[in-house]
Amino acid sequence: MKSTIKKWCSLFFVASVFAGFTACTPDETDLGNGLSDSNVDATFTVSQDPTSPNKFNLQGKTTNIIQSKWIIDGVPNQGQIGVVKNIFLPDAGTYTVTHSAIGRGGVANNSTQEIIVETSDPVAGNILIDGKFPDGQGAWQVLNISGTATNWAFAQGSATVTGSSNAQQAIYQAVEVQANRQYKLDMVVQGSGATDTWFEVLASDVAPVQNQDYSAGGTRIGLSTWNGCGNTAFNGKLSEIGCTGSGAIISFPTTGIIYIVIKSGGANLGTTGIKVSAVELRGIAE
Fold first, then answer.
1. Would you call 68 helix, strand, or coil by DSSP?
2. What span is annotated as the signal peptide, if there is one (predicted)?
3. pTM surpassing 0.85?
4. Fewer C-beta neighbours within 10 Å, C or N terminus of the chain?
5. Residue 222: beta bridge partners?
6. Residue 104 — φ and ψ, nearest 5°?
7. Per residue in 173-197, pLDDT tens?
């Protein structure tokens, strides 16, 4: 950015101290004051990590950048200014990567690329079908539990539960697991803040039954306004922002079919309800 500034100067004498000073004041500015940088470079390169077809290195610029923000397929990703090293994309598919580079004066520019992953990682790949809700409901089933004031609605990329009056409803999916293998269960949840509300994720080999509550295996991860989470606006991984349940790491004694059940209800689930995306059940490498 070029800036043209014309100045006028006056010399004043202060007799009492026999000293002088010069004052300069701009009277015309053509293109700004030079304190912001609208040309900050947000471009970056993507390279395949030689250790895995599911790992990639992202390299951004560093000159005149005071802060870098990365978004990997809609999810913020931590990283140093200009670089996020060795991101892991365990599922086959196309991922959108956005780099936001912030320069002087808070001016931000964005750059976006797509990364195509040909194959899923054999261990860490998501074993749930339609975990990202690519076509809406897909493989997910609705479980009616009680009342009619709470309902799940599906959209491309997410499912949202809204409701009131302490009614509750769930969605679920059957999936096959291996005996004694550790899995991590997680998802992204977003909401405007709820009142007297529960949001629970369960995993068990007990099949859900319509018009009956589901509590088999106990809550694994969840939100509970009584326990101090979900009261105010939230957006992030449930394993990180949740405050109830036995934990995201789970295993099963036998190989076979288990059911992932996501249920919610309460007095008021918030003006936007609770939106769920990127539901995952992934094996953990030994």
1. strand
2. 1-19
3. no
4. C
5. 200, 244
6. -60, 140
7. 999 999 999 999 999 999 999 999 9
